[in-house]
Q: What sequence folds into this?
């Protein structure tokens, strides 16, 4: 009887422990924290790929993922895709607006809000998430379409807020009123979970923190003494991110055109032509990703074409002036969202000056080439000195550089006299007496 009671007691204990673990949060003892860093970069397809790889690598090792964010915003489609990935991640995702002075603006605020945990460093801010249309066309699309885009963005924000149990009213203000909030203001409105000065402090704060993963699986984080692995951009991602910088894309476009200008004004096809084509192709790739104002892009192109035209049909500066005006106006209009994507005047002005100097340099070289005496062929004989082999008037013969030519002159030239070649007509040279030419000069 006693043995039966002990067996039943052990069974009840095991059943109770099992029920306890079923009804209680489970611990996910990850050994590694993978850290991604988006610092001063625009949200674009390359960033989407970077975060997707980070999530995949973290899920493979069942670790934790932390995304450090400092971005002025970016493109809507990559942002939506990133949010979708974060909401469906099978591992905990911590979004951390860092370092001090950083921001999670516009698209960055959606990404930050979609993390299981949202933390911010002191003196950072989040918000200004009103949607914009690439190329500065927001005011041109009409009120109805503006409302549709805004309402669609609000629906995205509402879904994120519901999934992460954060106040919808907070992110709604960042969209409808374009408001931004400091870390302290966001914490007071319960939009932010933690304020931490550095990663060490953050890991200490989130230790034993409860979160809900995809599939309503509640877990408790264990971040004490966790290994930290920093995932950096691959060489390919670094390169693509570099050329999608507005200033770099603008430089590639302008310098590519100038290289082609040099190539078409010189015989053959060499390094300048190949480099120009490659630069233009890379620039057009960047313009596809960036919210480009194509009117501005056209003006930059027209400006460079005017500069090219000046090199072929000199107009004493008229086309050069028009080209520079178009070039500078187009550059200013190229990326109209000054708060997110903009060109620096430190890039525009030097490049405009370079285009002016380069075009005039090519123009001078062309004029010099046209004035230069030919170095070979029959035309190269003009101006050369020869000796009359016979008397020359209507016809005769001269010796020039060891060759005998038929010759003609408007004046009588006696055999043995020196002559200067004035013109070439077919296989006959038109000559004048050298002494007469010198007197006329």
A:
């Amino acid at each position: 009887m006693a043995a039966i009671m002990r067996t039943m007691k052990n069974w009840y204990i095991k059943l109770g422990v099992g029920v306890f673990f079923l009804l209680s949060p489970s611990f996910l003892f990850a050994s590694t924290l993978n850290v991604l860093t988006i610092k001063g970069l625009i949200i674009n397809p390359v960033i989407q790929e970077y975060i997707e790889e980070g999530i995949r690598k973290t899920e493979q090792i069942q670790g934790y993922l932390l995304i450090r964010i400092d971005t002025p915003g970016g493109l809507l489609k990559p942002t939506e895709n990133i949010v979708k990935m974060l909401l469906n991640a099978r591992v905990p995702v911590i979004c951390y607006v860092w370092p001090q002075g950083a921001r999670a603006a516009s698209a960055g605020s959606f990404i930050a809000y979609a993390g299981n945990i949202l933390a911010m460093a002191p003196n950072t801010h989040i918000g200004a998430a009103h949607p914009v249309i690439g190329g500065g066309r927001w005011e041109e699309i009409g009120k109805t379409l503006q409302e549709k885009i805004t309402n669609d963005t609000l629906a995205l924000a509402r879904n994120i807020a519901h999934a992460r149990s954060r106040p919808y009213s907070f992110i709604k203000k960042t969209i409808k009123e374009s408001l931004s909030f400091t870390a302290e203001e966001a914490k007071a409105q319960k939009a932010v979970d933690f304020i931490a000065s550095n990663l060490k402090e953050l890991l200490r704060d989130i230790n034993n923190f409860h979160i809900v993963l995809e599939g309503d699986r509640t877990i408790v984080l264990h971040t004490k003494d966790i290994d930290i692995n920093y995932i950096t951009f691959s060489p390919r991602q670094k390169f693509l991110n570099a050329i999608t910088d507005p200033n770099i894309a603008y430089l590639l476009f302008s310098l590519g055109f100038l290289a082609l200008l040099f190539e078409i004004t010189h015989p053959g096809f060499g390094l300048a032509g190949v480099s120009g084509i490659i630069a233009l192709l890379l620039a057009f790739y960047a313009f596809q990703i960036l919210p480009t104002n194509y009117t501005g892009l056209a003006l930059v192109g027209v400006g460079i074409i005017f500069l090219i035209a000046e090199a072929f049909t000199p107009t004493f500066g008229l086309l050069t002036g028009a080209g520079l005006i178009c070039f500078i106006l187009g550059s200013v209009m190229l990326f109209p969202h000054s708060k997110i994507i903009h060109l620096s005047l430190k890039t525009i002005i030097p490049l405009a000056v370079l285009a002016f100097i380069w075009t005039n340099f090519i123009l001078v070289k062309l004029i010099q080439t046209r004035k230069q005496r030919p170095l070979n062929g029959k035309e190269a004989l003009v101006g050369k000195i020869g000796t009359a082999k016979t008397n020359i008037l209507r016809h005769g013969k001269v010796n020039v550089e060891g060759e005998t030519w038929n010759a003609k002159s408007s004046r009588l030239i006696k055999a043995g006299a020196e002559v200067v070649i004035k013109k070439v007509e077919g296989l006959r040279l038109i000559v004048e007496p050298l002494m007469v030419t010198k007197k006329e000069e």
About this structure: The longest strand covers residues 32-39.
